[in-house]
Design goal:
The protein is α/β, with parallel strands linked by helices and 200 residues long. The chain is 40% helix and 12% strand.
Length: 200
């Protein structure tokens, strides 16, 4: 019944999706939305750590989208949820999505990814940076093309580096894009420049 209610409800609200490359600031954006008054969909299964000391804001069932687990989307309406770019294409067309797509300087994405692998005891040299950057660029282009082709999707690019420098313009743009009241001061205060540890 929840799925039917979500699919055919008369006053459906857009699902706010935070997406982007790994280490591009998606957790920071989720925290900003949380502090700004947007309900966030998270199960807190993945605990904060040195890479994300303020939390990952993840929801495990997102990973099951390719298997058709979409029942939870009915409860996601009007809320924010973090979904990696590769899974966006599995979102059903029955809902409306507003996607905040995080952009970060590629050299910082790669450096942050490398540091995370080192902390986990994994090999950071499994693929060289140039090849990884090429894969990431191709992936972003594919995701953007998909978003632009979906009639039920609108998206806003959010520059992680610009947010860290001056969050005010970004939070105003986000409020305009989401078209809902937000606590802009709280959103801006949620940005912690001290966590900008890999810099271009």
């Amino acid at each position: 019944m929840e799925v039917l209610k979500g699919l055919f409800g008369r006053r459906r609200k857009p699902i706010i999706v935070v997406s982007g490359l790994p280490r591009s600031g998606t957790s920071m954006m989720m925290r900003m939305l949380d502090m700004g008054g947007v309900p966030v969909l998270t199960d807190e299964i993945r605990a904060p750590d040195l890479d994300n000391p303020k939390g990952y804001y993840e929801f495990e069932r997102v990973k099951k989208l390719p298997q058709g687990d979409i029942a939870w989307l009915a409860d996601a309406q009007g809320k924010a949820v973090k979904i990696i770019g590769a899974l966006l294409r599995h979102l059903p067309a029955a809902y409306t999505y507003k996607i905040l797509f995080m952009r970060r300087a590629m050299v910082e994405v790669l450096a942050s990814q490398r540091q995370m692998l080192i902390r986990r005891g994994e090999d950071p040299d499994g693929i060289d940076d140039e090849a990884m950057a090429e894969l990431f660029d191709k992936h972003v282009a594919q995701v953007v093309a998909w978003m632009e082709q979906q009639p039920n999707v609108s998206y806003l690019d959010v520059d992680y580096n610009a947010v860290l420098t001056d969050p005010a313009p970004a939070v105003r743009a986000i409020q305009g894009f989401l078209d809902r009241p937000l606590d802009l001061e709280a959103m801006a205060a949620a940005v912690d420049p001290r966590l900008h540890r890999q810099r271009a």
